[in-house]
Amino acid sequence: MHFRPRFRGLLDLVLPPRCLGCGAWPVAPLCAACRERLAPDRAPATRIPGLDACVAAVGFQGSVVEWMHRFKYRESGLLFPDAPAAAVVAELAREAARRAPGPPPDLVVPVPMHPRRLRARGFHPAATLAVRIAREVDARLDGTRLTRVRDTPSQTGLDRRARSRNVARAFRWTGPAPAPTIWLVDDVVTTGATLAECARCLRGAGARRVVGVCVARTPSAAEPDS
Hints:
It is a single chain. Helices cover about 35% and strands about 15% of the residues. By secondary structure, it is α/β, with parallel strands linked by helices. Helix 8 (about 195-205) links the parallel strand 6 and strand 7. Helix 3 (about 65-70) crosses helix 4 (about 85-100) and helix 4 (about 85-100) crosses helix 6 (about 125-135). The longest helix is centred in the middle third of the chain and has 17 residues, at about 85-100.
C-alpha cells in the first residue's frame, strides 16, 4: 500500500517508526547504536580489473551477515523477502551510492542472475538494490541488457583464480552500446571476480567508466561474493 507524504507523516506520529535492530523509537531503519555495530568497509582498496573504483557501505561481518542473509533468502513458506532486512539493506545501498567517487552514472546496471537461479530464488537481490541506487542518484536503470549466459556453480569455497575461471565468459551485453559511465551493482563483493568479468563485458560493448557499487565487502576470500 502506498501513502501520500502527508498521510505517511500522520501515520508516523501515531505509530512512530522503530529501529529494526533493537526496537528503539522513533528511529528507522536503525538507531545510532545498531548502525555503529555494522562495521564500515575497511577492506584494502585493491584494484579490481575493469573497474575504475569499487565501493561498499559496510564490511561483510558481524550483524551484516545476518541482515544480508535475511534479505537474500526467504524463510520457508514466505512469499516475500524479509521486510526489515530489505529496509536495512536498502539504506546501506544508498550509503554505498553516496561513497562512489567521480561523476554520477549515466546508467545503473545490476550484476545479473541466471534465469534458472532467478526462478529458484524468486527475486533478484542485485536488481532490487540497483533500483534503490538509481533512484538515489536519479539515473537510468537497465536490468535486461547485461545477462548471465552460463549458470555458473557457486563461488563459495573457491580461491581467487578459481573464481575468475568460474565466471569467465559468463556474461553478455545485448543491444546498443551502453552509456559511457556505468555503476555496476551487487550485494556483496569478495575477490571481485564477478564484477571484473561483468566490467570486461561492459567495456567490450563500449562503456568507458565502470564503478562497482556494493552493499558489503568481505574481509577475506572465504565468503561468497554473489
